[in-house]
User: What shape does this take?
Amino acid sequence: MNERDRVEQLLNDQVNLGQPIYYSDLAFKAGLRPMDGAWSAHPLCGIFEQLDRADYPAPLRTTLVIAKETGQPGPGYFESLERLREKQIPKSERDAVWISQYQELLARRKQPDR
Assistant: This one.
């Protein structure tokens, strides 16, 4: 199983559990190098971009990946949403957008036909 497939399976597991996972824990469980602050150079960055494109317009599975320091996704999550939606998300609306995505993702896991 390659890195992308391992990350995808771990995210699917988290969706089924209905629980978030820290970036660092996801990287560890997927067998990737530790998070070192250089997001664009980390394998998760490219993997998340692929998964987000595959998920959209449904809620992104990466919605469940959060930083230990903030309890929320990092800036790359919102940048990805902006690219996919082709519109800016004002910083003042990021919390509401994330919570909405999170709730919709969890609601969809209870509806396997989608």
